[in-house]
Automatic annotation (TrEMBL):
<dbReference type="InterPro" id="IPR018389">
    <property type="entry name" value="DctP_fam"/>
</dbReference>
<keyword id="KW-0732">Signal</keyword>
<protein>
    <submittedName>
        <fullName>TRAP transporter substrate-binding protein</fullName>
    </submittedName>
</protein>
<feature type="signal peptide">
    <location>
        <begin position="1"/>
        <end position="27"/>
    </location>
</feature>
<dbReference type="Pfam" id="PF03480">
    <property type="entry name" value="DctP"/>
</dbReference>
<dbReference type="InterPro" id="IPR004682">
    <property type="entry name" value="TRAP_DctP"/>
</dbReference>
<dbReference type="InterPro" id="IPR038404">
    <property type="entry name" value="TRAP_DctP_sf"/>
</dbReference>
Length: 340
């Protein structure tokens, strides 16, 4: 049913676009419709953040713009929605950096396992908007630009059978995001990597096409993966942020005053998302444990780390574009270590 609705919505949009409503974006009220696509449910912190974005834009510029948010991959998977944003069929999409790697090499850095020493380091790097500005502009040639980031937590393995040591990953088939670096990471653990879109993961686990996946805790509840995978292991291999990405032509078409409004709306959306994130992780853990029967397993993180650390050097050699940011993050790792 969900699939049918998705296809219907995508079909309606495609038909509207094919009809050449270049004012596809004009409502009957004469307002310019701003379309935002994301992959999460309406209870997810990102959706709540985007509601704050909508509210602010409409408060400030409501006579001209109406913001419409399309959750649940209704307009297609992240990769598809990025293409729609590239062409300007829609205006914004929330996509994980793994999905941006094919457009700008620098984003590969976030797929590097055990890059940040802690969530504090991760947040402080990501919140340094001056530093991140350069990175945000790296997809300009592809026709889109990042306008802000959202926390997508720490990624951990979960499966149908318990993963207590790295050995338990051997021979397992694990879904990863469509990113070469994530494929390499899972292979370093001796598992087989199955790259696929987020929306396909539930059925793939259920039907035994894969043994498990890796993600933050909300995948268990918001995306219901806890119904089909009952063991979640805190090996903490990645912190991969999500990005709010905007069509560049649209951003460039804004007057300086309007641009400031969208920038502020993006900032507010992140503020809301970050505040909601911690709360929703706590709630997801309780729900997964008590209602879905998921067992949370604490593992020896260093044992996992050891197996994939050689990837740092390999990635740095293969991709010079990530070196600066890597160095910057290492400095932040050191700084926060000193401060602790
Ligand atoms: C998280 C993240 C998404 C990403 C997904 C995935 O849910 O927020 O942006 O697409 O993981 O694993 O594909």
């Amino acid at each position: 049913m969900k699939k049918f609705l998705k296809r219907l919505a995508a079909g309606i949009l495609a038909a509207a676009l094919a009809a050449g409503l270049s004012g596809c974006s004009m409502a009957t009220s004469g307002k310019r419709i701003i379309r935002i696509s994301h992959a999460q449910a309406e209870t997810h912190p990102e959706h709540l953040g985007l509601l704050a974005f909508k509210q602010y834009v409409e408060e400030q510029l409501g006579d001209k713009y109406e913001v419409q948010i399309f959750p649940n991959e209704i307009l297609g998977s992240a990769q598809k929605a990025i293409e729609l944003t590239q062409t300007g069929a829609i205006d914004f999409v929330v996509a994980g950096t793994a999905n941006l790697e094919t457009f700008a090499d620098v984003y590969e850095i976030f797929s590097m396992p055990y890059l940040f020493d802690s969530e504090d380091v991760y947040r402080s790097v990501m919140e340094d908007t001056d530093y991140m500005q350069n990175i945000y502009q790296s997809t300009d040639d592809a026709g889109f630009r990042v306008v802000t980031w959202y926390n997508a937590g720490t990624r951990n393995f979960y499966a149908k059978t318990p993963i207590r040591t790295p050995d338990d990953l051997k021979g397992k088939k694990i879904r990863v995001q469509q990113s070469p670096a994530s494929v390499a990471m899972v292979q370093s653990f001796g598992a087989a990597a199955a790259p696929m879109g987020f929306g396909e993961v539930y059925t793939a686990i259920q039907q035994g096409v894969i043994d498990g996946a890796e993600n933050n805790e909300l995948a268990l509840t918001n995306n219901k993966h806890g119904e089909v995978a009952k063991y979640y292991s805190y090996n903490k291999h990645q912190m991969v942020p999500d990005m709010l990405v905007g069509n560049l032509k649209f951003l460039n078409s804004l007057s300086p005053k309007e641009y400031e409004v969208f920038k502020e709306a993006a900032r507010r959306s992140t503020e809301v998302e970050l505040a909601e994130w911690d709360k929703s992780i706590d709630a997801a853990k309780v729900k997964a444990k008590t209602e879905m029967g998921v067992e949370f397993i604490d593992v020896d993180v260093d044992a996992f780390k050891k197996m994939v650390l050689p990837l740092h050097e390999k990635m740095l050699n293969d991709n010079p574009k990530i070196r600066d940011l890597y160095q910057h993050i290492q400095e932040e790792n050191q700084k926060l270590k000193g401060g602790q």
